[in-house]
Write a structure and sequence with these properties.
Blueprint (H helix, E strand, L loop, with lengths): L4 H17 L1 H5 L5 H56 L15
Length: 103
């Protein structure tokens, strides 16, 4: 079973706290304070990056909504322009406007 990001952060914090409280015992087998500090540093950095990612996701969602609205407005404007060209310009000249319709 895959662990969620929140579970991973909780596990890292618990591990760091446990290692700190048993620092003398784990130091005997080569797990020193620098390694404990590395776990704390990485978990903090991961949390900060997750926060930044969530912020960027929200910004992307907002930007996507704006893009969709702008694209819809562009479609309406182009359809209006196409109708105008078809009405005002002879069919032989439609290609100059990018219109390949027959009628």
């Amino acid at each position: 079973m895959a662990t969620s990001f929140a579970q991973k952060l909780t596990a890292a914090r618990l591990m760091a706290a446990g290692l700190k409280s048993h620092a003398d015992d784990v130091k005997k087998v080569g797990f020193d304070e620098a390694k404990i500090a590395e776990i704390e540093k990485l978990s903090l950095e991961a949390q900060e990056l997750d926060n930044e990612q969530e912020s960027l996701k929200a910004k992307l969602k907002s930007c996507t909504e704006k893009l969709n609205k702008t694209t819809e407005a562009l479609d309406v404007a182009l359809n209006d322009a196409k109708k105008t060209v078809k009405f005002a310009i002879s069919q032989s000249e439609w290609k100059a406007f990018g219109i390949s319709d027959k009628k």
